[in-house]
User: Fold this.
Amino acid sequence: MKKLFIYLRDYRKESVLGPLFKLLEAGFELIVPLVVAAIIDKGIGSGDQEYIIKMCLVLVALGLVGLFCSVTAQYFAAKASVGFVKKLRHALYSHIQGFSYQTLDKVGISTLITRMTSDMNQVQTGLNLALRLLLRSPFVVFGAMIMAFTIDVQAALWFAAAIPVLSVVVFGIMLMSIPLYKKVQGLLDKVLGATRENLTGVRVLRAFGKEEAEIASFEEKNEALTDMQKYVGRISALMNPVTYVIINLAILFLIHTGAVRVEAGLITQGAVVALYNYMSQILVELIKLANLIINITKSVACGKRIQGVLDMPAGETAETGLEKGDSKYRVQFVHAGICYNEGADPALTDVSFAVLPGETVGVIGGTGSGKSTLVNLIPRFYEATEGRVFIDGQDVKAVDPAELRQRVGVVPQKAVLFKGTIRDNLRWGNENASDEDIMQAVRIAQAEDVVVSKGGLDAPVEQGGRNLSGGQRQRLTIARALVRKPDILILDDSSSALDFATDAALRKALREMDERPTVFIVSQRTSSIQQADQIIVLDDGKAAGAGDHFGLLETCPVYREIYESQFKKEAARA
Amino acid sequence: MSKAQKAEKGTLKKVLNYLRPYWALVALSILLSAAVVGLTLYVPVLIGRAIDRIIGPGQVDFAAVMALLIRIGVIVAATAGIQWLVNSINNKITYQVVRDVRDQAFRRLQILPLSYIDSHPVGGVVSQVIADVDQFTDGLLLGFTQLFTGVVTILGTLVFMLSIRPGIAAVVVVLTPLSFVVARFIATHTYSFFKQQSETRGEQTAFIDEMLGNQKVVKAFGQEAKNVEKFDEINERLEKCSLKSIFYSSLTNPCTRFVNNVVYAAVALAGALVCVASAGTAAPFTVGSLSALLSYANQYTKPFNEISGVVTELQNALACASRVFKLIAEPPQTPDDLDARVLENAAGRVDIDGAAFAYSPDKPLIENLNLHVKPGQRIAIVGPTGCGKTTLINLLMRFYDVDAGAVSVEGTDVRHITRRSLRANYGMVLQDTWLKAGTVRENLILGKPGATDEEIIAACKAAHAHSFIKRLPDGYDTVIGEDGGQLSQGQKQLLCIARIMLCLPPMLILDEATSSIDTRTEIRIQKAFNTMMEGRTTFIVAHRLSTIREADVILVMRDGHIIEQGDHETLLQKNGFYAKLYNSQFAA
Assistant:
C-alpha cells in the first residue's frame, strides 16, 4: 500500500490542507456547546438579553466560518483524490503495457480490467472520504473529551471510560464482519458464475433439457448468498444499538456525577448541559465513523489489489553480452525450449532449425504439440528458457523488443480488430502507410472484396470487429500484418476460417510478393504447408521431423500419419 | 407527469409487488421503527427533566434525578433491543426480496427464446442479474432504514417540539426546509457534471476493455506507447469532470449543515429569550426544556439531509431495478402445446418442407428449404461461411422456429412435440465446446445422470479421452474451472464427444465436432464415431471434406439454399460448386 502514496506526492499540499481545514471546522463545532453553556449560565442566569443575542450571532458566525472551512476542505480533498487516481491509473496502465505475454497469461485479462476500473473508483472514493473525515472523527471524539476535561475533570472521567469501550465495540464488530463480507463477495462470485455459465452454455443445457436442474442449482447458490448476507447483516446491525447504549449509559453516569458536583457547587447547570452535548456529538461522530471505516476497508483492499499488479515485474529489456549466431540465417533456433511454469512439463524442448531470408517454413503438429509456442519465441513474446533463438545472428534477447517486433508481422489465431475504420486498423501495421500500400497488402491478403463490400477503407469497424464475419476479419488481420512489410511474417493457424480455395490463393499471392518475407505458416492442414521450403513437425513439444514434404513423407511417421489422415492414400501417391 | 416519472412509478409498483409476501414483516418493521423513533426522542425529554433538577448548589433533587436516570436506562436498553430487531428485519426483507428477484430473473432466462440470448451480450445480461440487482439491494436497504425512520423522526421531533414550546418549534419548522431547497439546488446543478463523468468513465472502460482484452495483439504491433497516449487523453478529461462532479456534489453537506447551524442558533436565541421572559412566571420555560429543544433541533434537521441523499440513491436503485424487471418481463418462447407429443426413441425420419427463416426480417436467410431424411441416414452439410449450416441446426433442435413451412420428426411438426423430448432425441457436439465448472464426471453425465463408472469409462475410452482424464490430478473427479479451464481446446472437444457417447440418443448433430482435435486422434476416434452413427440419423457439418465423403447425402448450401444434393461421387461428376470446393483442397 505504501508505494501507492508516492502518486500522492504531487498533491502533498492538497492532502495536508484538506484534513487541516476539516479539523478547523470540527474545532469550531466543538466551541458551540461552550457558547450554549455561556448563554444558559450568563445570559439566562442574569437575564441579559443583549448577551444572549450576541452569543447567538457568535453561533451563526461559527457556522459561517465552518462552512468556509469545510468547502475548502472538500475542494482540496476532491482535487487530491481525483488527481491521485488519475496518476495511479496512468501508472498502472503504462505498467501493464510492459507486461510480457507470460505475465499477461499469469495474471489474466479480466482481473486487470476490474483493477483498472472498479478498484480504481473505490480507491478514489475511499481516499476522498479519508481526507475529509478520517482525521475528523477521532478529532471530534477526543476533542470532545478534552473539552469535557476543561469543564470538569471528574465528570470528564466518564468520557475517558466510555471511549475505550466504544473503540473495542466498533472495531470488534468490524473485525468480525470484514471476513464475512469477503465471504459474501465470494458467494456473489458463485452466483455470477452460475449465471454466466448458464448463458454461455445455453445450447448444450437446453439440448440436454437441463433447465430445471440449472434453476435448482442457481437457487441453492442464491440461497447460500442470502443466508450469508442476513448473517453478516445481523452482526453489523449490532453496531448502532450497542454504541447507542454505551453512550447513553455514559450520559446517565455523567448526569449523576454532574448532580453531585453541582450540589457541591463545583460546576454549574450550564456545564452539565455542555457535557451532555459533547457526549451527543460523540454519538453522531461514531455513526459516521462506522460507515467511513467500512468504506475505507474496502478501498484498502482495492488498493492492495492495484499494488499487487504494480509489484509485478514489467518492462522487457535488451540484454547485453550474448553470443551471436550465424548471421546468414534470418531465423535460427539452437536447442531452444520453453517451460511456461516451473515444475510443469516443458511446452517445447530442444528445437533446432535455421531459415534463410525469403524462405517459407511450415509448422505442423497435433493439438497442444507446441506449434504456437514455437513461433511465439521469434518476436520474443515468450522467452526461451533453454537454448537460443537468433534473428540475423542476433539473440532475440539482445534486441530491443520494440525494434524486434517492428520487423515481424504476426497474424494471431484469434482474428481481432478494433473500433475505428478499416484504415485505422490496417495502419496498426505501419502508421505511415499510404492508401496504396494498404491496398496492396489487402490484395495479397485476399481481402479486397471485404474492403469493397464494406464501402472502402473508411468503412467503420465495430468493437472486436463484430460487423464482419470470421473469414473477413481473418483476411483483414493478415492484411494488417502485411502493411508493415515485415521481414518475417507469422501466420499462426490464421487461415482456419478461410475456405480451401481462398487459403490457396493467399499462399500463392504471398509467394509472388516482390520483397518476399520469411514466412512461418502454422497449420493443422498439410495442404497449407506442403509447398513450404521446410516443414517442422512437432509432437508433444518435440521436433518429430524436419525437411520438405516429400522427404518427410518418407522419413517421418508422424507427418505421414497426419497427411494420410487428411488425404486418401491414393491421392498421396498420385 | 413525465415519461421518466411514469416509468419510475411503474417500477415502484413492481417492487411493492415483490414486497407483498413479506407484508407482515414490513408492517412489523414500520411499527417497531416508529417505536424506536418515539423512544429515541423521549430520552432527551427525560434528560432535560433530570437537568432541571440540578439547578445549583443545594438545589439538587437527588431522589428525582435517580428515578429519572433509571427510567432512562430502561428505555435506552429497550430502544437498543428494538433497533437491533428492526435492523435485522429490514435485512431479512431486503435480502429475501433480492433473492426472489434474482431467482425469477434466472427462471426467465431458462425460458427466453434463443434469439434473445443470442442477440444480447452475456456480460450485459449477467450485469443485469448481478450488478443491477446489487445496486437495487443497496438502495432498498437504505430506503428501508433511512427513508422511513427519517420521515418518522421528523414527524416525531415535530410533535415533541410542539409539546415543549409551540412558538420555538415554529421557528424550526419554518427554517429547516431551507436545507432541502439548498440540497435540491445543488443536486440539479451537479446532474450534468455527473452525467458527463459517467459518460467519460464509460468511454474509458470501453477503451480499457477493448485494448487490455487484446493486449497481446497490441504488443505484437508495438502499439503500447500510442495506447498510453490515447488512454491519457481520456484520463485527463475524466479527471476534469470527476473533480467538478465530486466537488460540487460534496457541497451539499457543508451547505445544509450551515442551514442547520443557523436553525440551531435561532432556537438558542428564541429559547433563551423565552427563558428569560418567562422566568418567575407560573409556567417557566426551563433550561432543561431548552436543552431538549436544542437537541431536537439537531435531530430534526439531520433526516432532511439524509433524505435528500437517500432520494438520489433510491432513484439510482429504481433505475437498476427497472433493468432487471425488463429482463423478467421479456416475452418467453411459445410454451409447449398442452397436448404436445412426447417423442420417445425416434426412428430418425426428419422432414423439412418449404422452410423459411431469417434472423432479421430484412435479411432473409433460408428460403423454401426442403429435405427428407430417412432413418439412419448420414447427412453432411457443406458450404461457405454464413451459408446457413448453423441455422439449419438451430431449426432442427428447435432453438429457433421456422417463419414458414415446417420441420417434422417422425411425421409430427416439431412445434407439436415437447421441446425437452425433441432435444433428448438429439445428441449434439458443437464446435464451440462448452463445459460447466465442476468435476469431469459431472460434465460427462450431463445427458445420463445415473451412469455407472463402467459406462463412463467405456464411453471415454471410445472417445479417446480416458487416457488424458486418467492423467489429470484427480482423474474423473478433477474439478475443471469455468468453461473447461486449463484443458486444451482439443481435450474439451473430446469430453463433449464422450458426453454424447455416454447417453447415445437416437439422432446426432455433429457441428465441426472434431475441429480442434488433431487429425491423428480424429482418425482414431473415427471408428467409435462410425459405430455410434450406425443406425442413427446424423447431421454432420465439417470443413474437412474427408469426414464428409462417406455421407449418404451431401447438402451443399449457399446463401440459405441447398444448391446441390447427392452423394460424393454424383456431386463430383456434376462438376459444380462441390467439385470446386473439393478440388481446392488439392490445389497447389
